Model the fold of this input.
Amino acid sequence: MIRRILLSCMVLIAINASAQQPTMDQFITKLMQRMTLEEKLGQLNLPSVGFDVTGPILSEDVEEKIKKGLVGGVFNTFTPVAVRKLQDLAIKETRLKIPLLFGYDVVHGHRTIFPVPLGLSAGWDMDLIKRTAIAAADEASADGLNWTFSPMVDIARDPRWGRVSEGSGEDPYLGSQIAKAMVQGYQGDDLRKNNTILACVKHFALYGASEAGRDYNTVDMSRIRMYNEYLPPYKAAVDAGVATIMTSFNEIEGIPATANKWLLTELLQKQWGFHGLIVTDYTAINEMIAHGMGDEKKVGELSLNAGVDMDMVGEVFIKHGASLVKEGKVSIAQIDKACRRILEAKYKLGLFEDPYRYISEERNKSAIMNTDKIALSKEAAIKSMVLLKNQSQTLPLDATKKIAFIGPLVKDRRNLIGSWSGAGDYKKAVSIWSALEQQNGHKFLYAKGCNLIDDPALRKRLNDHDGQIQAEAASPEQMIAEAVQTAQQSEIIVAVLGEAFGMSGEAASRSMIGLPENQQTLLRALKATGKPIVLVLMNGRPLTLQWENDNCDAILETWFGGTQAGPAIADVLFGKANPSGKLSMSFPRNTGQIPVYYNAKNTGRPFDENQKYTSKYLDIPNTPLYPFGYGLSYTSFTYGEISLDKKTITAKDKIQVSVSVTNNGSYDGEETVQLYIRDLVGTVTRPVKELKAFKKLMLKKGETKEVSFSISVEDLKFYNNELKYAAEPGKFKLMIGGNSKEVKEVEFELK
Done:
């Protein structure tokens, strides 16, 4: 009885305390009533401070601006010591003691680095992707950060664009699933927990469609294409509760995204109901001057009125905001709206309760690069790998044979963590050679074979940005001769080749996306030895590999695999792990074929090799070298016939779909079963197929499992030419298989 009374009292106390606690809206309204216009504009300012500059400008006099209340957050500063120093300035030396946000590019891990996002997406494993985001948030928050500028969800179909490495490939459905997983991983279920951080979906919008695959370039497309093909991953992130969104550098319908009111206000806020913080990309407001939108004051006016809340590094708002308000060109209501959203982000993080919530040297020591995260890095690297070719079961390797490991990336660590590795330390990455020595001793042969890059101009350009690419004293001819001699002593060659990390990522577009010429020369020389060749690739984008596919016995795509790339690659090469990755972006046969993607549309004269006047090339097939969803295994899988529980549905029905999948090879393995749908007749033309569902399953050798899917009218909807999202009655083709090209087919009808 006494215990019951005590519990009742405690509940009443808690209720009263809750009632006395002001709501977020009340708290911020009261705070803003005390703020001057200059202090409000200060909240809109996000300068860069620290030891990592991702753009051409480093903000000046930041400490003095913080003291004056002219800074809302800081970009590029982390570690508990550095963050505490700046937070102290805001809390102890400003009039209103408003805490700062601390943001950083935590793109594929913070200190523990995971595979580049394009590689992670090839795992088609949402739980794994979410766990990498959880781990990244745990490390970043332990390093004083509370905001990451990730995930990048731009749909990309041009592999010349270097930033394909940061995204999830060409498909809006897969991209949407990954966007949700990343947002949920970073933000968790409670932003007040000190191991969660604000996510920031980028780049809004359409940045992956830059003309000619050239970074920062123009984008121009119809709205029907935007809504159906490019906007879904951003919308998925909004629906998942993403806290912040970053504007893109490109223009949309002739207006840069950062000044595009239709994009930021009409679409994002009114249609999608997003009420979080909108931040620009690095100096994106200033760069609108070069776009031809006006002087600095004018572009500041345009971006504020479009719906931008926070200016990253450009400092345009604190320079011109007050005069824009005074002149009536920007309303005080617009400034208040922007300021409120920034303060709300801080409130949701719990910074007004405890400005030092993310500053703990004790947690920093225990959370960063701990055993669990290192293990996760290896797991992610293994699951990201895609086996592109395996003729005559060349892989896995037999460790008892004489094997020659040849190539500039065999012993390399600098490039393993890839671009956008932020606070990652490549010196803590484990190379392939180190992993081999740890597992097998000194039993394998080695030759470097060639420099990573021979072109002096390209090498200098990359080294100016910490490429650390060294040219050997020996001539290219001498290095190849040594490699050939080493290869001749072996029974099989493993050539480890690819890009330098700086050859993909931001400002890293390439007009030709094959292996560097000197690496191709080495590979041809190795081919001439007559020995079997396993090509191990490290890169951040799809490459053109027609010659390699025709002449190598096996090809393993490992991307830039992160901190544990070496041990992961060694495990896969020797069969301790079975590769299960599937491409999230098609590999073209050559650059003249770009863009090539699976969910294209038919023409009125579709491809027919027996007819002259059809849509095709004279010199190559229309198809990619490796299609979307493609990836081999050390085992083999066969698919049974597709079973539907009904052939006709209405808007209220669902079709139950099932197919049996059998592992009829010699290894246990994972298979990603992919379901595609084609709308055969529409009021607007529809793609030849669209991914609508997938499931990843583990099958022991000889095992058969039945895989089931449920298809409803929601899976059949699209945006028509009036931008109405609806399904249209008619016939549909349903396809299931292990990639977008090799599928079984059935038809059904929507009445």
In short: Residues 269 and 275 are 6 Å apart (CA to CA).
